[in-house]
Design goal:
The complex is a heterotrimer of chains A (191), B (306) and C (666).
Chain A: H1 13-21, H2 33-37, H3 48-56, H4 60-67, H5 71-74, H6 80-84, H7 91-104, H8 113-129, H9 134-145, H10 155-160, H11 174-190
Helix pairs in contact in A: 8-9, 8-11
Chain B: E1 2-6, H1 10-13, H2 17-29, E2 32-36, H3 45-51, H4 53-69, E3 74-76, H5 80-94, H6 97-107, E4 116-118, H7 120-127, H8 129-135, E5 143-146, H9 156-159, H10 169-176, E6 180-181, H11 200-216, E7 221-224, H12 227-235, H13 237-244, E8 252-254, H14 255-262
Chain C: E1 4-9, H1 21-29, E2 34-40, H2 46-59, E3 63-68, H3 71-84, E4 92-96, H4 98-102, H5 109-128, E5 135-138, E6 142-146, H6 150-161, E7 165-169, E8 184-185, E9 190-191, H7 192-205, E10 209-212, E11 215-223, E12 226-233, H8 248-252, E13 258-259, E14 268-269, E15 272-273, E16 285-286, H9 292-296, H10 301-305, E17 318-324, E18 326-329, E19 333-335, E20 352-354, H11 355-362, E21 383-390, H12 406-420, E22 425-430, H13 440-449, E23 454-457, E24 462-466, E25 469-476, E26 482-488, E27 490-495, E28 497-499, H14 503-510, E29 537-539, H15 549-567, E30 571-574, E31 579-581, H16 597-601, E32 607-613, E33 619-626, H17 636-640, E34 646-648, H18 653-664
Parallel strand pairs in C: 1-2, 1-3, 3-4, 6-7, 6-18, 7-10, 18-29, 20-27, 21-22, 21-27, 22-23
Antiparallel strand pairs in C: 5-30, 8-9, 11-12, 12-17, 13-14, 15-16, 19-28, 24-25, 25-26, 31-34, 32-33
Classes of the chains: A mainly alpha (191), B alpha/beta (306), C alpha/beta (666).
The complex binds flavin-adenine dinucleotide and iron/sulfur cluster (5 copies).
The site of one iron/sulfur cluster has 13 residues of chain C, from helix 9 and helix 10.
């Protein structure tokens, strides 16, 4: 989204975020309604309104804390905060942005490893087959996290119920999907 | 025979096969042919938008571009998560032509943004609702807690579907199928979504609270429109019950299964046997539950003023 | 050959910081027809004005251009100075080199050049100016007060006590407004009825006040000093002279199940009713929409029981015309129905109520005789959650502004609750506590410290009902935004104060401007807070913006003084900047062809028809003529007239062309 470019200093973090996401950090008046409705606020190290406040400080130390926080990975993009925010601040998009920043800066919280591993397995599955191959995803995820025993108990039942497909669906345009992944990767590196 | 474009999404090919089975069976009853978008890919789901903005735009864009190429105007997207992704991407690209052309070059396809994205309820309302009541042969006479979850109704500014708080569209359908939609508080609270595997405990807590409110208000069944919600409420039931320290055994049905049962389709066709929590209903309701006042007609595209 | 004086003002540094004022004076002093030019630090100051006056005399000036700020503020100042020096005031013009130049451009030669151009334009205009005489109009010394809340009451009493007549129009059956619904009032906790009722009675009994209740203003014509107002007195189905207010009808009326508006729906009232026991006048009206007789054609119980035979089923609305010289708007405010917050469950859960309903619960004359009992089951709530800013400061769903009164009344509610239910716990979810006002902060502190109100800083996300309790989900932003859940017995929403319903229509009826929120607009936010942009119409109380009682009363007294000042004159003078339709003698010639297009567009009905007669008294043609008293000089007719027969004094076509040409011929 095109925010006005001259109106704020391009080097501040909130300025960058505004350019990336259109979210205007200073619009938040710290009412806390987002934290009040966020389903995972109680598990977060910084509930959403606190994330907003930390960004408002434009303090590198706070930014660092955020990049290393669990909050950004716990957010499930449920959009409750945005729906009820009196200022219509798009926190979910902001969270996406922070996650990407954290990942890029290699600062992800160690406890978020499982979540990130899951995402990566998920994306790999798409990269290779064009679709999500659930069984492959689970196996891949287990390899990445070492959580070998997780969910083994329900797997056979799922299988019987026809909920686990033993063979991956591979789309014809598989190469095209891989090309999309490549182009995005190249764009990033070119940047 | 009416033809409508169809995007099943990965889960309907895997863990949520019964959703696809029931949607197809229901469509057939109403003479609708669902035309699957050829060679569709995964929409990227949560993983893509968590990890890469471009990827989260490109994957859905390719799906819509494929549909455009086939001349498909309406795409039914029964999975609420996929519906949400496709709608958001369509919206964002429509508002930003330079982004749109950038993504078009990444997917190396023409993209116009002309397709109409319909969620399962919008699809039913557009193609089925008018003829629904005349076809009901076995009223679905159960107290139903319609659970909408997050992705069907939020963000309202983009989706513009139903009321964002206390939505009613599914309640109306359940009522038309002969059921009672109960008034409850957790219709749009989050179930934990894609955290099922990576943070099972979170899912158990969130889904647990949802199930608890439903049974506290004497629901006999929870009705959903999203495979992710379904798997959290159904497949994660052991974890839920452990979290609650209770034994909740009411089934979770897709709205398509509810309507399918009402129009007389047999449970197997609708894939009821595939649920992890066994689908069984009490013979007689015991206590009167508070029943929501359901407006006669709720526009599926309008907000709370409706 | 003109002898014009140019006076360039520095406005402290407001102008001189970017414009070279000396240079402007020097260059424009060389213009043809300019006799004298100078600059000065503050032209509007006493020495500045003296400078102008002396220059007029010394140089025998026949025109003056003051290059300074916008004419809005100081044109009258400088015109008056000119008049005092013997120059016709309408030969003085202002050139705006501040807002139009120095404030909007950087310091630069070009900026100075622009200022020179602006002055030159005005010099050329002044050359074409004509001496004009002010228009005199008589003043009708009766004031109309619209709205009978505390603001209207105060304004009416103040004006009446100055010896002037007042007509008060109130649309409800009783005067009193919102204040009559309140229990006790911050910051002193005195009983609202006790301080209000005597004033209401005083209005009713004052020899100078005529009160029309159940009435609304239908139309307003005319202008300051000379308004003509039509009032629709709605039928009360009652002969008020016969009715003694015994109230028998209200007790016998079989139709008793109408939600009582005054009690915010917490009680019921009959179809023939007096809104509340202390109502003024204390006489009933029949609510025709709910009266069995008007609906079904049968009943008339009230007519049968009435000892004085005062009921009049066939009574019709009455239109009353009154001439007035000034109007005070005092139509108050409304509270936003909080049903646009589905997440708060108002309307769905009976025990989620708004602040006004809580006032009724706390009021000794209310539906529970002042006991705090929740609407659903009459239980005494042990935990109440008060929600501040419910709809205020919420661009997404409510209004952007702060409603100003709710922080205070919420603290009051918490206090009243604690005083009545000693073991109860009041919670207040707030964002900021806005308690600016005499003794206000102290009042809030008392609610927190003495009455142990739990203030939690955060907006709540949602309220839902569970097992007879209201689950309130909030967060404590002073505790790291930690989620908070309270099982409350009752929730009170401090809903936003908004413009009264019908405010927009009323503003259009009386021809005053209003802001985007539909509150009536003051003429100047700081210096003319009780005036409107329409001369002779003033503002009192919460019709302008949310206000508490002290502020409403202060504004009302302010408006009353304005009215009294106006009425202290027998005649008003007005600027003669009005339209004229050309006339030349003899025999009366005019470019006007009598098409009267102007008449159809004039927003002030100022165009009249004049019949031109020959010596024998026969009508030879009909021409347009402008009523100087009504014309506001808007110029619409000028723009429309096909034959260019109409001009505006002081802004003639010729003058405007001259200004444009002065720029082009540079
Ligand atoms: C819940 C609550 C509690 C409050 N508590 C306090 C308190 O403790 N202390 C305090 O100082 N303030 C308090 N206030 C504020 C107080 O109510 C206002 O300051 C006061 O009522 C404003 O008076 P008003 O005359 O301007 O307007 P209103 O009281 O609104 O009166 C306006 C009158 O004009 C009439 N009217 C409206 N439109 C028309 C029309 N078109 N034609 C004719 N008549 C019309 C109305 O019927 C009404 O009688 C409270 C407000 C609320 C909502
Ligand atoms: S989108 Fe994320 S931050 Fe917002 S309410 Fe949902 S989980 Fe919380
Ligand atoms: S709801 Fe919006 S304004 Fe309030 S704290 Fe959260 S982001 Fe800020
Ligand atoms: S006629 Fe109307 S007001 Fe009179 S008693 Fe009957 S219902 Fe009441
Ligand atoms: S006065 Fe207080 S409660 Fe009312 S809107 Fe302003 S801050 Fe909110
Ligand atoms: S100038 Fe305006 S007010 Fe005066 S007569 Fe013309 S149209 Fe009417």
């Amino acid at each position: 989204m095109s925010a006005s470019h001259e109106s704020h200093h391009p080097l501040t973090l909130s300025g960058e975020i505004r350019l990336d996401t259109g979210v205007i950090i200073n619009k938040c008046y710290q009412c806390g309604k987002c934290s009040a409705g966020c389903p995972v606020a109680e598990e977060m190290d910084y509930p959403p309104s606190l994330v907003m406040r930390m960004l408002q400080t434009d303090d590198p130390k706070q930014y660092e804390k955020l990049l290393k926080s669990m909050s950004i990975w716990l957010c499930i993009s449920c959009e409750m905060c945005l729906t009820r925010c009196p200022m219509e601040i798009d926190i979910p998009t902001l969270m996406d942005n922070l996650r990407q920043r954290s990942y890029k800066a290699k600062k992800t919280n160690p406890q978020a490893r499982k979540i990130i591993a899951f995402h990566k397995s998920f994306l790999d599955s798409i990269n290779y087959t064009g679709r999500l191959y659930e069984m492959g995803l689970i196996v891949d995820y287990k390899m990445r996290t070492g959580a070998m025993m997780q969910d083994v108990a329900i797997a056979p039942k799922m299988f019987v119920k026809g909920k686990l497909n033993p063979v991956p669906e591979v789309i014809k345009g598989r190469k095209k999907i891989a090309a999309i992944f490549n182009r995005i990767q190249n764009n990033k590196e070119g940047k | 025979m009416i033809k409508v474009g169809f995007y099943p999404g990965c889960s309907m090919k895997g863990g949520a096969q019964e959703y696809q089975e029931s949607v197809s069976a229901l469509a057939k009853v109403f003479d609708i042919e669902l035309v699957e978008i050829p060679d569709w890919n995964c929409c990227g789901a949560t993983a893509a938008h968590n990890m890469s903005k471009e990827l989260s735009l490109s994957l859905p864009a390719r799906i819509m571009a494929l549909a455009e190429k086939e001349g498909i105007t309406d795409i039914v997207v029964p999975c609420a998560a996929c519906y949400n992704r496709l709608s958001l991407v369509k919206h964002e690209m429509a508002g930003d032509p330079s982004l749109s052309s950038k993504i078009a070059s990444i997917i190396d396809m023409k993209y116009e943004g002309t397709t109409q994205i319909l969620n399962i309820i919008q699809f039913i309302d557009k193609y089925i609702t008018d003829r629904l009541e005349e076809k009901v042969v076995k009223p679905f006479d159960y107290k139903s807690a319609c659970y909408y979850g997050c992705l069907l109704v939020r963000p309202h500014s983009v989706l513009k579907f139903d009321r964002v708080e206390d939505p009613q569209s599914m309640d109306v359908l359940v009522k038309k199928a002969g059921g009672k939609a109960i008034d409850w508080a957790f219709k749009t609270e989050c179930c934990g979504a894609g955290m099922s595997v990576s943070r099972t405990d979170t899912v158990a807590r969130l889904s647990g609270n949802i199930m608890k409110d439903a049974v506290d208000r004497q629901a006999e069944v929870v009705v959903v429109a999203c495979p992710m919600c379904h798997s959290n409420l159904d497949m994660r039931r052991p974890e839920i019950n452990k979290f609650l320290g209770e034994k909740i055994d009411i089934p979770v049905l897709y709205i398509s299964q509810v309507l399918g049962l009402a129009v007389g389709l047999d449970p197997k066709t609708l894939g009821l046997n595939r649920h992890m929590t066994e689908v069984k209903f009490p013979a007689k309701p015991v206590i009167e539950a508070p029943v929501a006042e359901v407006p006669k007609k709720v526009s599926t595209t309008q907000n709370m003023e409706a | 050959m003109s002898r014009i004086g140019v006076f360039v003002c520095h406005c402290g540094e407001n102008i001189s910081a970017t414009v070279n004022c000396e240079k402007v004076a020097k260059i424009t002093g060389e213009l043809k027809g300019v006799e004298f030019a100078t600059d000065y630090k503050y032209m509007c100051s006493d020495p500045g004005q003296t400078l102008i006056k002396e220059a007029i005399k010394e140089h025998k000036l026949d025109g003056v251009v003051v290059a300074a700020c916008s004419p809005r503020m100081h044109e009258p100042t400088f015109r008056k100075a000119c008049a005092e020096a013997g120059l016709n005031p309408f030969l003085c013009e202002m050139s705006n080199i501040r807002e139009h130049c120095s404030w909007v451009h950087p310091k630069d030669d070009l900026t100075t050049e622009k200022a020179q151009d602006l002055v030159r334009v005005m010099v050329e205009k002044v050359k074409k100016n004509k001496a004009l005489n002010s228009i005199k109009v008589p003043v009708t010394k009766t004031a109309l007060v619209i709205g009978g809340g505390i603001a209207g009451i105060q304004a009416a009493l103040d004006i009446a006590n100055c010896g002037h007549k007042v007509v008060m129009v109130e649309r409800q059956p009783s005067i009193g407004g919102h204040m009559s619904q309140l229990s006790e009032t911050f910051p002193t906790l005195d009983c609202s009825q006790c301080i209000l009722t005597p004033r209401m009675v005083e209005v009713a009994q004052h020899p100078n006040i005529t009160l029309y209740t159940y009435a609304e203003v239908e139309s307003v014509d005319g202008f300051i000093g000379n308004f003509n107002v039509k009032i629709r007195k709605k039928s009360k189905s009652l002969d008020e002279d016969l009715c003694t207010g015994c109230g028998l009808c209200t007790t016998k009326c079989p139709q008793k199940k109408i939600p009582n508006e005054f009690e915010r729906g917490l009680g019921m009232r009959p179809a023939i009713y007096v809104p509340f026991p202390q109502a003024v006048p204390n006489k009933p009206v029949i609510d025709r929409e709910n009266c069995t007789y008007y609906i079904k054609g049968k009943c008339k119980v009230c007519e049968i029981v009435c000892p004085t035979k005062a009921i009049r089923f066939d009574q019709e609305d009455e239109i009353i015309e009154v001439p007035v010289g000034a109007i005070v708007m005092a139509t108050g405010f409304d509270v936003l129905k909080p049903d646009f917050f589905p997440e708060y469950g108002y309307g769905k859960y009976k025990d989620v109520i708004d602040g006004l309903a809580f006032e009724r619960l706390a009021s000794a004359s209310g539906p529970t005789q002042g006991e705090i009992r929740r609407p659903s089951d009459g239980q005494i709530p042990k935990k109440i959650v008060f929600v501040a800013c419910a709809g205020s400061r919420d661009p997404a769903k409510g209004i952007e502004y702060c409603s100003k009164i709710c922080c205070m009344y919420t603290a009051k509610h918490a206090m009243l609750y604690k005083h009545k239910v000693h073991d109860g716990i009041p919670y207040v979810f707030y964002m900021d506590i806005r308690a600016g006002g005499k003794n206000y902060e102290e009042f809030v502190r008392r609610a927190i410290v003495e009455d142990e109100t739990q203030y939690i800083r955060g907006r709540i996300s949602t309220i839902y009902e569970k097992n007879g309790k209201l689950i309130v989900k909030g967060a404590d932003t002073l505790m790291g935004a930690m989620p908070v859940e309270i099982e409350a017995d009752m929730v009170v929403l401090a809903t936003a104060g908004v413009a009264n319903h019908g405010a927009e229509e009323l503003a259009q009826t009386v021809h005053i401007s209003y802001d985007p929120y539909k509150f009536f607009a003051e003429a100047h936010p700081k210096l003319k807070p009780v005036e409107t942009n329409t001369a002779g119409i003033f503002l009192a109380g919460a019709c302008q913006a949310p206000k508490d009682i002290p502020e409403s009363v202060a504004a009302a007294s302010g408006a009353a003084v304005k009215v009294a000042a106006l009425f202290s004159q027998d005649e008003l003078t007005r600027d003669p900047l009005v339209a004229v339709v050309s006339r030349q003698a003899p025999p009366v010639y005019s470019q006007c062809v009598g098409c009267f297009l102007c008449q159809s567009v004039c927003p002030y009905q100022a165009i009249e028809r004049e019949e031109i007669k020959n010596r024998n008294g026969e009508v030879i043609k009909t021409l347009a003529r402008v009523n100087e008293g009504l014309c506001q000089g808007c110029g619409t007719c000028v723009a429309l007239c096909r034959t260019k027969a109409i001009d505006i004094h002081g802004y003639s076509n010729q003058q405007v062309y001259t200004e444009v040409m002065a720029l082009l011929n540079d």
